[in-house]
Amino acid sequence: MAEPTNTPMPPSTPVPASTPRSMSPAPPVQMVIHSLTPNATGTTSNPVWPSSPESSAKIKKHIVLHIGDSVKYNPQTYFEFSQAFEVIRPDILERTRPAFIQALKERRWGDFSAIFRPFWGSGGEMGQWDSELISLLPDSVKVFASAGAGHDWADTKLLGEKGIIYCNSGLAAAEAVADFAVAMVISTFRHLPWCMGAAILPYHNETADQKAFDAASEAFRECHARATRASHNLRGHVLGLIGFGNIGQQIAAKLGHSAFGMRVAYYDVIRKRESVEAELNATFHSDLPSLLKASDCVVLCTPASADGKPLITAETLRCIKPGTRFVNIARGSLVDEDALADALESGMLSAAALDVHADEPRIHPRLVKLARIDGANPGRVMLTCHNAGGTVETHMGFEELSMRNIMAVLQGRDAITPVNLHFLKT
To answer: Which GO MF terms does the UniProt record name (predicted)?
Structure first.
């Protein structure tokens, strides 16, 4: 699957020294926070990244391999980072897969201790981090910290077995993704693509004569009447969350009883603490079919499966109630898109909103057809371009959190956002 192409501020944009850093600034040395402490809901709003307890003069100069664009948003942290470590940044030609493999074989960058990838838009030129690449890494590598929440492009199991902690930056994107998911859930209940598309449909052809304009204007009147009969308030409906990590919990907090009044249900491989469930008024389902049967709107917000198999299939979709809505802000590979199109065309699903797609940047043609607005088709699908996490604040956080993870591990402290500790042999 293609990587998302959410691009931060263009390189030409000046970044002053006073550029605000992600979330809260790092605390002074005497106020070290060794981990992000979840609040009562298990989420970590306004997190504070741990700062270095040692002075840079006393820190061993580990080598850090920086792949991708230069740091743009957090100059103060990068100064601390570059003082603590020797940072080597391969050029774009060295990052193409054949050249990168050759450089690793030649030990061109020595016994580096960490890999730092601060942006999604660059640093992935070498492709999948599979056995071919990972087997060539020196034994000195202890941590790989990257932008982004997803990690289906890297074999985190193999990294762990080699003793390398992989850290993602999903925490930095959680609020942006949750906000976007709220908009998509609202869209499925209020048919926003239809309402928006029908409003401008008469104006698509600026050279049309009055007769054609009057005919096209019927789309406005049709939507005004028909969308009203198909739309519903969110309050009282069951929000079914597949995955109840940081993003899932933030979606629950935003759409639950204290805001939009939805009843929250969730399925996760690990049940959350009773205090988390109580705070979010969330009901746990021990299996996916049970959740699907109970939900009025299903939101997919779980990481991609290690085996690459879809979670939403023709079989699982048979468990849904007629008229259910579906939202995906996780990974396109988790959904059998033909089965999803079947469910939409048959009316089993009343609406869908998809930010991610199985073959990005290409979108499934049947889903594109279902998203179109015309006289016969109300446009029951919202399609976006992997935008959910794409905010400046998210990219600030990606950069900051990736550096903080490396600083923590190489300075003998716990990683902040590790994802593969269960695979580490030591």
So the answer is: glyoxylate reductase (NADPH) activity; hydroxypyruvate reductase [NAD(P)H] activity; NAD binding
